[in-house]
Amino acid sequence: MNRKVMSHLDRLLERYPVLVPLKERIAESFEIIRQCYEQGGKLLIGGNGGSCSDAEHIVGELMKGFVLPRTLDADMQKALTDVDPVFGAELAKQLQGGLPAVALSSHPALSTAFLNDVNGEMIYAQQVNALGKPGDVFLGITTSGNAKNVQYAAITAKAKGMKVIGLTGKTGGVLNTLADVNLVMPCDETYQIQELHLPVYHCLCLMVEQELFGTDFNV
Q1: Architecture of the 3-63+99-213 domain
Q2: pLDDT tens readout for residues 32-44
Q3: I need a surface site. Which of 73, 77, 79, 123 has the fewest CB within 10 A?
């Protein structure tokens, strides 16, 4: 891990010393996500309630510039202007590099159909089955580590040859045995766990952006 990427993790631990025991696991999670994106993969994210909101939040940080502007490369800019000199030029100027990420809660028609026709607890697993491929990553966010729909999705992800990262709390729950890396926040109250989830996933997004779109910037 290069120095600039590592600086984001160092700053996270300075602000939140309670997370120091998770340093190696956060670094390992970064490596899994980095490898996924460098190999052309995508991140699938599932959670419930506040964790569902966190899944959407993460997508927002990855699919567009988070801190960096992520200017399109020259080849893509030229391709756009070749298609349409006027609108293509506008697109070339304003579009940003994006990292493919999908919040599995974002498909209400599919989800309600599967809930009605099959099994509501397997909605995330169905999407992992349809969208996932070897090299992709499933990020399961559950404060207990025991959300059944996240568990089903994690099992499906492993069967598809994907990596699994857990973002949990309390004891870590069933994701301790299913996840390649389980980031267990060192607290028991749901709201306290969620309060730590946000700076952790912000740090991971910063680290990935620095690695893949890197330049000097401060946060």
Answers
A1: 3-Layer(aba) Sandwich (3.40)
A2: 999 999 999 999 9
A3: 73
